[in-house]
Design brief:
Elements lengths: L5 H10 L1 H4 L3 H10 L1 E5 L4 E3 L7 E7 L2 E6 L5 E7 L4 E2 L1 H6 L6 E4 L3 E7 H10 L1 H27 L2 H12 L1 E3 L2 E4 L5 H8 L3 H13 L3 E3 L5 E3 L8
Antiparallel strand pairs: 1-8, 2-7, 3-6, 3-8, 4-5, 4-7, 9-10, 10-12, 11-12
The site of adenosine-3',5'-cyclic-monophosphate has 14 residues, from strand 5, helix 4 and helix 6.
Length: 226
């Protein structure tokens, strides 16, 4: 495997929004200490409860953040993609990892150790603000999830997940992400069978229309109340 030089890293760091706010000298220092890591699809990056010490920034690929109980029952807290970071919580409060992170695809990460992360935060208010904005975004999403679990029925929860993962393309809203029903079930606290039944219901009601390429077109006017 090719080693990445500080110059390669510098060019990469300049393109990452989180680091682009750093001064040139800080960027150069950082370029010497960050490490690039590739993790194959379906691997655990770290597990809840571990005391690992790195921040991870996703350069490419997607990961899921999940928790599980002693019987192996899992809940997916979030799916994170390119440009997003994880692993900051344990670095901020010195507690064990709050959740397990697993790759959904082969992922390339940029990692930074605790000391370098803290130095960056201490010397750069803009970067500290970006990290805070990331935390606030997560809190808003977690609030929305609590609201869904408490106030929506399974039909509404599935519809909301489909909307969240879809994108507007021209005058249509399309779901291109391959979202296994098992994963949708783990996001909303339902069984896979229930999600399949609800998806069928959504299709029958004309809320989602399956396309030959495996994607779905979502009809927003029918989902406005989610
Ligand atoms: P840390 O606790 O170090 O390790 C697990 C990471 O998962 C955590 O830092 C966050 O980066 C991330 N994480 C935890 N909870 C959520 C959540 N609700 N949404 C998105 N990411 C999360």
């Amino acid at each position: 495997m090719r080693e990445h030089s500080p110059q390669d890293n510098l060019e990469l760091l300049r393109r990452v929004p989180l680091f682009s706010v750093l001064e040139p000298t800080q960027l150069e220092l950082l370029a010497r200490v960050v490490i690039r890591k590739t993790v194959a699809k379906g691997r655990s990056v770290f597990s809840a409860g571990e005391m690992s010490q790195s921040l991870y920034l996703i350069l490419s690929g997607r990961t899921k953040v999940q928790m599980s109980d002693a019987e192996g029952k899992e809940v997916i807290l979030a799916v994170l993609g390119s440009g997003e970071f994880f692993g900051e919580m344990a670095l901020i409060d010195d507690q064990p990892r709050s959740a397990t992170v697993v790759t959904l695809e082969t992922c390339e990460f940029l990692t930074m150790n605790k000391e370098d992360f803290r130095n960056c935060l201490a010397s750069n208010t803009e970067m500290a603000t970006l990290i805070m904005r990331g935390l606030v975004k997560r809190l808003r999403e977690a609030d929305r999830k609590i609201e869904s679990l408490a106030l929506l029925d399974v039909y509404g929860r599935v519809a909301r997940v489909l909307l969240e993962f879809s994108e507007v393309e021209g005058d249509r809203r399309v779901l291109r992400d391959k979202l296994p029903r098992q994963d949708v079930a783990k996001m909303i606290g339902a069984s896979r069978e229930m999600v399949s039944r609800v998806m069928k219901g959504l299709e029958t009601d004309g809320f989602i229309v399956a396309q030959p390429d495996g994607s779905f077109v979502l009809h927003e006017n029918r989902s406005a109340h989610y």
